[in-house]
Amino acid sequence: MTRLLGRLPIAVRVPLMGAAMMLLAGLVASQQVLTALTRTQEARLEELTRQHVSGLSLALGPAVLRQDIWDVFDTLDRAARADEDHRMVLTVVANDDGIVIAASDPRRAPVDSALSDHFDLGAVPALDEISLARPDIHMRVQAPLTYQGRTVGRLVSELDVADLIDERRRAGLFLLLFNTAATGALALLGYVVMRHMLRPVDVLARRMSTDEGHPTRFTEAEIPDGDTEVARLFRTYNDMIGSVEAKADAERRLAERERLVSLGRLSSSLAHEINNPLGGLLNAADTIESYADRPDAVRRSAALLKRGLEHLRDVTKAALDHNRIEDRAASLSAQDLEDMRLLVLPEVRRMEQDLGWCIEAADPSLAAYPAGPVRQIVLNLLLNAISAAGRGGSVSFAVQTRPGGVQLDILDDGPGLSAAARDRLMTSAPASAAGGLGLRIVREMVNGLGGRIESARQDGVTRISITLPFAAPEV
Amino acid sequence: MTRRRFLAGSAAVSTSLVAGTSSAQPAFRFGLTPVFLDNDAIVVEQIRSTLATAMGRPIELLQRRTYQEVTALLLEGAIDASWLCGYPFLRWKESLSLVAIPVWRGRPLYRSYLIAARNDPAHDLASLEGGIHAFSDPDSNSGWLVTASDLARMNQTPDSLFRRTIFTDGHRNVVRAVANGLTRSGSVDGYVWEVLSQVEPDLAGRTRVVSRSEWFGFPPIVCRSDRVNAAEIEAFSRALLSMQDLDAGRVMLRTLHLDGFARPELQLFDGIAARMAEVGPQP
Q1: What is the tally of structural domains in chain A?
Q2: I need a surface site. Which of A111, A187, A291, B123 has the fewest CB within 10 A?
Q3: Under CATH, to which class is B2-108+217-279 assigned?
Q4: Range of A154-168, A209-223, A408-422, B84-98 with top mean pLDDT
Q5: Which ranges in chain B are annotated with CATH 3.40.190.10?
Q6: pLDDT tens string B10-55
């Protein structure tokens, strides 16, 4: 039940609970009224019985003392006849020894019989113990008969309380009907009112659950009138949507900038890469020009020229591939990793570094991943490692197939990640304004591929390991 | 009869004449006993006003619960006359004289009834043995003496035959006691029972007559013997004897289910005297 209630939307649950509380309040109120009525009736009955008993006591005293059967009967008979409400069903008067002197109906309690033969005296309440708890239309009460200060006998009366019980039953029935109707109406009203009040919350919840990924603002017409908290909630929601959109926009622009930055760094090293062999190539061209009549020299120079130009073509192609955005959804291949080597090699050389390169994964494993993000991740981390290692340092890159995924390791012997850089790479904490966003973009791309990042530093070597699962989560 | 009517008529004239000059006279004090249908104050008031009209002087009615009390009032002169049972009258016949006797169903006679509950199987006095019995008054002929003397004939007493006996101070109360089951049986004035079976059939109908006695002289109106010739007693006697000639008197007689009043004769009470002899002297 609780679970069922818990599953209901708040716009239904709260009105339902309101209605339930109304019903509960109605029940409690009815119970209170009935209890009060019973108390009033008991007080009335006690007063009535007290009058009945004290009146009889007064009239019977001398006759009971004399044990005058006729006088006792005559008094009881007259009292019964004078009782217009016919409340007294039976009154039995006994002497001090519990022997019946006379009863208002002598056939029920004959003269000289034992009072205890007619009543279970232990169960007959005294005057101050009267209760209407048992729904018996004949209520019994017993009282001692005193005359001139001493107890001369005992009186047991059976009173007809059918009218009181009927009155209570009718009151109970009326209360039940009235309260059912009233609380039912109030509960319905409460449900409708609360439902109406909670409608904006419902609207907000629907908007949030259906607009997943593409939140839209509420129009002014959709925002409730006035400056209520609900209206403020709607406006705040609109503001939040604006912030989310602005953030996503900023991130897009930053990612683009980052790509351009790495491109800039690449272009300068590419310029070197192209410029360096140019001297050799020009020399080869000069040789061909100068020794055109020497076929062996020409052939040798032409071969040199061809190799140089092929290298230039490969480098240019790698650079072009890296920036060809439309191809970024293509599957990763060993060629992509080779491209990365070509792209960073000029920078490695410029920095006079030692580059280790170990690819132990074949195309079938690599094809599980999109080329674009992986290339961006690898290039970013390699350039970062080269920069960290410094002039004359060592950088290495390894790709291994593991059970369930592929592991990429980037190592360098630089001074290690700064705290800010580590935060950007390893956590989702807001990035500080200072410093590049390359590492944060790496993190987001790895997350996007369902992978995880580990970093470790041992013996002066910084290792960043990226593990990418084969089955990338569906996004 | 014609002579009586004439006398009654002239008495009515004379009493009405007296009534015209009666305002200063002291009240005539009349004692009533529980022989009567004493449950109805209206009847008592009717008797008082009718007698006052008939006698032409105020009447003071004194009611007492027992014959003993009324007899005492009469003997000490606290009342001028009283309606008494034949039994106490005979006990005090040296001091009391008869004034008039009611006529019921054409005769100045009545009987005693032994009654039991309607569905009681008793068929005679002996078969009521072991029960509780209701008497009217220890000084009542029909309500005590008749049954006591019947028992004496059986060599029994009320206390030996019955488990318990009670006195109810009135014949109507005997009927109430038996009808309600307080007692199994009762001794009651036959006149009262017959009248009750007409005016209160719900009450008398719950009882039945087990046996009826022989006829006795009806409870008479008596006065002290030393005042029997006093003028007011004579006037009272005339008023009673002429009651059936008065409109109010006829209404009163109808209420009492009586025909009228007659001059009493002592031998009407011989039956009661015989019964008294059978039970012997009582305290």
Answers
A1: 2
A2: B123
A3: alpha beta
A4: B84-98
A5: 2-108+217-279, 112-213
A6: 333 333 333 444 456 788 999 987 645 655 677 888 888 999 988 8
pLDDT, one tens digit per residue, over A244-279 is: 888 888 878 877 777 677 667 667 666 766 776 777
Instruction: Tell me the chain B residues in contact with residue A105 when contact means C-beta distances shorter than 8 Å.
Output: 180-181
Please state the ipTM of this predicted complex.
Answer: 0.84
Mean pLDDT of A72-82: 89
Q: Show Cβ contacts of residue B23 under 8 Å, excluding neighbours closer than 6 positions.
A: none
How distant is the Cα of B259 from the closest Cα of chain A, in angstroms? Answer: 32
> Residue A114's domain is classified under what CATH number?
3.30.450.20
- DSSP code string of A44-95: HHHHHHHHHHHHHHHHHHHHHHHT-HHHHHHHHHHHHHH-TT--EEEEEEEE
Domain end among A162, A185, A208? A185
Nearest CB among B132, B173, B183 relative to A74 is that of B173
Q: Flag whether residue B182 sits within 8 Å of chain A, measured between CB atoms.
A: yes
Chain A residues whose beta carbon lies within 8 Å of the beta carbon of residue B166: 68-70
Architecture of domain B112-213: 3-Layer(aba) Sandwich (3.40)
Report CB contact under 8 Å: B166, A70.
Answer: yes
CB spacing of B180 vs A102 below 8 angstroms: no
Segment B106-144, tens digit of pLDDT: 999 999 999 999 999 999 999 999 999 999 999 999 999
**pLDDT over 50 (residue B95):** yes
Domain end point (choices A133, A165, A185): A185
A109 in Cβ contact with A118 (< 8 Å)? yes
In contact, B214 and B111? CB cutoff 8 Å? yes
- A306 lies in some domain: no
Side chain identity, residue A214: H
Domain that holds residue A168: 2-185
Which of the pair, A222 or A393, is modelled with greater confidence? A393
Q: Which residue has the tokens 């005339």?
A: B238
Is there a contact between A138 and A158 (Cβ–Cβ < 8 Å)?
yes
